[in-house]
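Hi V.,

Quick status before I head out on leave. The structure for the redesign project is tokenized and pasted below; the design run finished overnight.
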């Protein structure tokens, strides 16, 4: 009796150890997959918010050659975001399929476990009915050769009875697990159907936006002459800012030379020679330059609220319009009316002026050897010589006659033009 009972106890002990471990592994796997689905969901919501914001800008901006070009850039971003949403939905649906497949496999295993427990329970009940009647139990106990053996047989019968109750509770527990798993599968299938419905709507919306994009391209192609005029005007505006910055740097160089001359010559020994840098090379300026450079990629955007970049940095062939080649010394950022420009880093306002060809008011803030330029302001809150801190409001961005509110922003290292996208967070 004892060896049989020991083996039985060992099997139950192993089951008690392994079953929770398997359940924990299964729960951990499901939890990891659920976390990935949640991350995809968050990305999808973020892309939807971006599309809603772009739609608002498109709705506010009235048609003109330049605003149509900006609208086309906004639409391109919107189409890209919509495609991203569909891709994220496909990933979510794929994960849901895997999750449902995994749950179906678990359901099959639970069913097999339940079947095995039921067979074992049925056999034990049959065994009790045949061999373990009240008369048999008393006979089994009283037929022992010694009193100690009788006690052991009574203990065995109690343990056997306890095992029967335990198996019955296992059946109930396993059936409950099966019911819960079936509910989970049904919920997952409902969520998958919802995702499929969303994907269908997003695909339909994508087709609409792509058609709108093609119509905008066609319209701009017909407005080629007007667009070239607008681009020429923007080029003149950029040249006007370039001249102002060059004048500023030349002024700084003359001041640096004068300071150097009054100090008795440069370090190289050539009295009155221009320093290598256009700006005064003081300890404070070097520290400010170093601090600004250390924040590359972490600078805040130069405006409050939401925004969309409608014109990127540099000279670019437009991807949709073969006859359009744009050039930008910085980036143009579209936002909503009433938005304010803010400093991206601490520094000194070197200039606050009106651009002769447009862009309304313009502010230049110096950060050691670096300059940040904020163009197209209709109200200015600072003046030349003011010290400003990071995120300090500089002025209100102008809204043009086509209802477009666009900030022109540049970053330079002295005269060298840098791509702001590489510096902003």
């Amino acid at each position: 009796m004892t060896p049989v009972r020991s083996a039985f106890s060992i099997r139950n002990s192993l089951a008690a150890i392994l079953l929770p471990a398997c359940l924990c592994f299964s729960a951990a796997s499901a939890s990891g997959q659920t976390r990935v689905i949640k991350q995809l969901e968050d990305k999808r919501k973020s892309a939807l918010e971006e599309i809603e914001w772009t739609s608002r800008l498109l709705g506010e901006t009235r048609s003109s050659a330049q605003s149509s070009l900006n609208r086309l850039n906004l639409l391109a971003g919107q189409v890209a975001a919509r495609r991203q949403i569909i891709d994220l939905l496909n990933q979510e649906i794929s994960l849901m399929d895997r999750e449902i497949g995994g749950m179906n496999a678990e359901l099959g295993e639970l069913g097999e476990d339940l079947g095995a427990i039921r067979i074992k329970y049925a056999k034990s009940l049959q065994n009790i009915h045949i061999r373990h009647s009240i008369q048999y139990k008393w006979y089994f106990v009283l037929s022992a050769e010694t009193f100690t053996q009788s006690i052991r047989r009574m203990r065995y019968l109690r343990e056997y009875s306890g095992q029967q109750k335990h198996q019955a509770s296992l059946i109930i527990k396993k059936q409950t697990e099966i019911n819960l798993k079936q509910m989970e599968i049904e919920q997952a299938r409902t969520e998958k159907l919802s995702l499929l419905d969303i994907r269908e709507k997003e695909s339909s919306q994508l087709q609409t936006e792509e058609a709108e994009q093609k119509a905008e391209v066609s319209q701009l192609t017909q407005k080629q002459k007007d667009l070239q005029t607008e681009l020429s005007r923007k080029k003149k505006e950029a040249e006007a800012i370039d001249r102002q910055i060059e004048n500023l740097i030349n002024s700084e160089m003359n001041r640096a030379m004068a300071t150097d001359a009054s100090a008795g010559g440069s370090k190289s020994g050539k009295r009155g020679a221009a320093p290598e840098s256009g700006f005064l090379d003081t300890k404070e300026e070097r520290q400010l330059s170093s601090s600004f450079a250390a924040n590359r990629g972490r600078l805040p955007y130069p405006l409050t609220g939401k925004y969309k970049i409608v014109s990127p940095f540099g000279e670019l062939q437009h991807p949709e319009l073969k006859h359009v080649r744009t050039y930008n010394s910085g980036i143009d950022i579209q936002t909503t009316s009433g938005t304010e420009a803010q400093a991206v880093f601490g520094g000194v306002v070197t200039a606050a002026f009106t651009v002769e060809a447009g862009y309304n008011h313009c502010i230049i803030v110096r950060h050691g050897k670096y300059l940040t330029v904020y163009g197209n302001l209709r109200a200015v809150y600072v003046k030349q010589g003011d010290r400003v801190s990071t995120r300090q409001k500089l002025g209100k961005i102008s809204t043009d006659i086509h209802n477009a509110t666009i900030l022109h922003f540049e970053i330079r290292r002295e005269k060298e033009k840098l791509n702001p996208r590489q510096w902003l967070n």
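Above is the designed sequence. The two ends are 75 Å apart (CA to CA).

G. will cover questions while I'm gone.

Best,
W.
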